[in-house]
């Protein structure tokens, strides 16, 4: 029988805090949770999607977008202060060091003013992540995130079938989803994010809800994954389901090793077969062997890394000069690339080996907290950090996450990474 060594949980500073005003009592805890939910929704792309409906591809909404995010940063300051930081843990120090390094790297770029603003946003995101872990703890934060994503997924499906323009993804090369429909992005900023965040909501629903609620909420998450037409979302969703089946079995002492061995062999065999028929697999997913140009982007990313391997080109220092980039990569035929479509390549190219080293240290902290959750938290919630890690790694392989400002998956990754034992058990 497994024993869970749960440390004593400290008093939650958000509980029973009431502000008396002339208009009545204000529940601070409820306000904080509502603010965190709104912050998560904006980081998931809902704000950008809504504002883009009022301008030409969102261009006229740019100043308003920045103003709202600035307001969110100001509102996050009380949450950060309420964390009552008397000391900084090693995990938090590494995360903040990475953020400060990113901030300083902007002075190497050709447009330091705007890139400094982007890096400042990323640093505020880190402060928000640390505050969520300290003040709310992982379980409460995950519950808020789960409810937020479920609402966004439900709204996305409704808007898609209602025919709202911004809920339908325009594919430049006219690909349909895997079920033969026009791809959906819903209220998110891109169909890939719609699929990836739906996979994240699937992991949250599987581990936080009882069986009665779990079924229809998971079905809703899976529906948007299929509607989005995102192969990355589909891979992430299937991986989450695989983890939900495998992890409980692995930790059963009697059959765990046997089941893990059998499953590993099945993955190797099926992976080998898929690799032998890779052209067929890619055709079913609506992709070519270049992953819609991503491998070409990775090649040029590697060339940038080779030119400045130690310090990199600075945060935002490559794509802030589009003309220079296009001269280097004039053969790119799919679209105007906003990034390298790979988080690790992006970090290496922009922040060099030093940035990658700091980010790797944060990754180690994340893995340690996954292990801690398995021993401190009762299942199935104990499996959630592992599932989040799986979704994050899959997203990292093809999208600019990990050091991306105002991006949900990056924020969630840092929340898990900086949490201490008490926050994990809270």
From TrEMBL:
Signal peptide: none annotated. Residues 218-359 form the O-antigen ligase-related domain. It is a multi-pass membrane protein. Its main location: membrane. GO terms for cellular component: membrane. Keywords: Membrane, Transmembrane, Transmembrane helix. The keyword Cell wall biogenesis/degradation does not apply. It comes from the Bacteria. The keyword Transmembrane applies. The chain crosses the membrane at residues 34-52, 64-81, 93-110, 116-137, 149-170, 190-210, 222-251, 257-285, 344-367, 382-401. It is found in: Membrane. This is O-antigen ligase-related domain-containing protein. It comes from Aurantiacibacter arachoides.
């Amino acid at each position: 029988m497994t024993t869970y060594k749960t440390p004593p949980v400290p008093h939650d500073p958000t509980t029973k805090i009431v502000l008396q005003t002339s208009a009545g009592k204000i529940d601070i805890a409820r306000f904080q949770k509502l603010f965190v939910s709104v912050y998560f929704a904006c980081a998931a792309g809902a704000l950008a999607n809504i504002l883009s409906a009022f301008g030409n591809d969102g261009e006229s909404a740019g100043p308003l977008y920045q103003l709202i995010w600035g307001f969110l940063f100001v509102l996050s300051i009380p949450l950060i202060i309420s964390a009552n930081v008397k000391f900084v843990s090693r995990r938090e120090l590494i995360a903040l060091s990475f953020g400060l390094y990113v901030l300083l790297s902007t002075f190497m770029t050709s447009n330091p003013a705007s890139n400094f603003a982007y890096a400042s946003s990323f640093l505020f995101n880190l402060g928000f992540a640390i505050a969520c872990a300290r003040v709310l703890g992982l379980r409460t934060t995950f519950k808020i995130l789960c409810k937020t994503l479920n609402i966004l997924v439900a709204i996305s499906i409704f808007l898609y079938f209602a025919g709202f323009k911004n809920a339908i993804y325009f594919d430049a090369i006219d690909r349909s989803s895997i079920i033969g429909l026009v791809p959906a992005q819903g209220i998110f900023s891109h169909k890939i994010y719609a699929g990836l965040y739906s996979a994240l909501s699937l992991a949250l629903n599987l581990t936080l809800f009882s069986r009665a609620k779990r079924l229809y909420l998971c079905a809703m998450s899976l529906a948007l994954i299929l509607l989005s037409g995102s192969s990355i979302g589909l891979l992430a969703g299937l991986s989450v389901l695989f983890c939900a089946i495998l992890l409980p079995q692995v930790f059963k002492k009697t059959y765990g090793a046997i089941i893990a061995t059998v499953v590993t062999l099945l993955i190797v065999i099926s992976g080998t077969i898929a690799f032998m028929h890779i052209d067929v697999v890619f055709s079913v997913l609506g992709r070519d062997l270049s992953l819609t140009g991503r491998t070409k982007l990775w090649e040029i990313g590697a060339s940038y890394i080779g030119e400045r391997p130690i310090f990199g080109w600075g945060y935002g220092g490559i794509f802030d000069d589009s003309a220079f980039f296009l001269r280097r990569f004039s053969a790119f035929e799919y679209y105007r690339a906003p990034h390298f479509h790979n988080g690790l390549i992006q970090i290496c190219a922009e922040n060099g080996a030093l940035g990658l080293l700091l980010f790797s240290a944060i990754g180690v902290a994340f893995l340690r907290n996954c292990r801690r959750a398995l021993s401190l938290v009762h299942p199935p919630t104990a499996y959630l950090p592992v599932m989040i890690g799986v979704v994050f790694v899959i997203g990292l392989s093809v999208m600019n996450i990990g050091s991306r400002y105002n991006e949900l998956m990056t924020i969630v990754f840092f929340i898990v990474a900086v949490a201490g034992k008490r926050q994990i058990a809270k």
